Amino acid sequence: MREPMSVEEVLKRLQEALGEALLSHEVREYTMGVRRKRTYRELWIEIDPKAFRRAVEVMFELDYPHLHFITGEDDGGDSLRMVYSFGLFWAIPWGELSVTMRFNLPKDSLVLPTITDLMPGAETNEREIREMLGVEFEGLKNKRHLFLPDDWPEGKYPWRKDEYGVEDMVKHTHKSVNEIRRGE
Amino acid sequence: MAKTQYYVPVGPIHPALKEPIRVEAKVEGERIVEVDVKRGFAHRGIEYMGMKRNAIQTLYLSERICGICSISHPYAFVIGSEKALGIEAPPRAQYIRTIIAELERIHSHILWLGVVAHEMGFDSLLFWTWKGREKVLDILELLTGNRINYSVFMIGGVRRDITESQAKAIKDMINYYRIFTEEMKDVFLADPVYKARTRGVAQLSRDMAKKLNVCGPVARAAGLRMDVRQDNPYDAYADIGVRAVVPQDIVGEARGDAYDITLVRIYEIEQSLDIIEFCLEGMPEGKIMAIPNYVALLAKIRRSEGEAIGMHEAPRGEVIHYFKYGNKRDGPVVWKVIAPSYNNINTWGPLLLGAEVADIPIVVAYIDPCMCCNDRVAVVRDENGRIIDPATLHLKAVEKTRKLREELGVRE
Predict the structure, then answer these.
(1) Residues in domain NADH:ubiquinone oxidoreductase 30kDa subunit (chain A) (predicted)?
(2) Is the domain of B329 the same as that of B265?
(3) All domains in chain A, ordered by first residue
């Protein structure tokens, strides 16, 4: 039986492993319940993108996590804001600790190491982020489109808000993808 | 003579696959040797739409993500939004939400049991289970006015109260389902043919379930005690102390096959009845909405900033919504939705490898993928010129059941 660790212990392990690459952290508290009120806590950390792989490895050293989601945000600036959320110590009543790591990934080097070698189930998440935001995952074996059609034009990413977004395709919805590609 | 391999494309839309999704199986005789799953045939970009609307509009948009569990997504939405905005729903509203969510779990599980019976060729069982499901749909209609897309949740509460007479109707329904669940246990779990047809089919080991990141009844059938209502409780679940239903507690071991998943689902219906009963008995008095004025609510959202994750244990598994509010907008700036099938479909590849063609419908149906009510399928001919279409595939599943029935000596 696994023993859940407290937020402080998890944070300490992350600080030891990442050092200065752990830019900031926040412990959020939420009270749930009506008659038996209990507080559960979440850990939100801000890291340096270079230390991302090490941070994920720490998660796997502490406990085999449950990947909640991977997402990213483009506000039209020079970087993408990536969000990775893991659940540690799941399957223990009141024990799940959600650790959310966020970092800014510069648009001139949109490359991240894959985590599918540690967790094969993360493939869907990575494939979605790859086609929607244009982030390249190093070591991802299956790079086929997940939700977008196979003939989706290269260099167009639906979640991007800069020139790589789908603005021109939205304006020409009467045209097929092939027509836009050929520049008709 | 060398064995010839054939491709059997199932989908984009097929009676066994409730979603527009395509399974390309390479078969050698009856065995599947290679499998490829393609999805994204009807990607609606709903997250993108939500980022352009206000939070109340997006809440009702989220209800349209899934056609069957239309309360699961709004539930994760309100939990996440309340965490991000710092709103607390009144106690009575929290209990009402839990009751509605559990009613939905009952109807979703019974629907699945009917579908699986149909895939195996027990059509009278399909009609019998779906007839039993009507009762809970009637109750949902009584409580909310709709049989689907109830539109009853709101950020910071619910929009409809449960009156005394409605509470009495729910109690009658609980009595009805107590008997019905016992009958279902007899019909499904004690039946030798059902057992033979599902034992060892679609078997998922505990380790594989962990690695494939699966959730909900699929993970529980494999023996993982994971349940958002237990690990990370919210609303009335925090008062109840829900425990995940796992096969090892019921029959001593978890094999993670189609039989175990049936077991988990039937016992979860019982658990839902207990939860509803608890909520009805201990229902707190008071108001049902924290901020009843929608204009005031939107004004508060516009002033707020924050991000949060909302989670709910839907009938099929966990639903996760990530939000970011801010930029002086009255709707989410970032909205990311993860539905249970998103992860659970990962199991198809490994499970179909080495399986028989007749098992495709069961492997596909057992994770309960989301429903999309269309019918379209590519037609392929095998070496004898026979068409392998949905009907043939269904027939293969039925034939296998009949064969087993004869072998086991069960009379029609």
Answers:
(1) 45-163
(2) yes
(3) 7-147 (3.30.460.80)
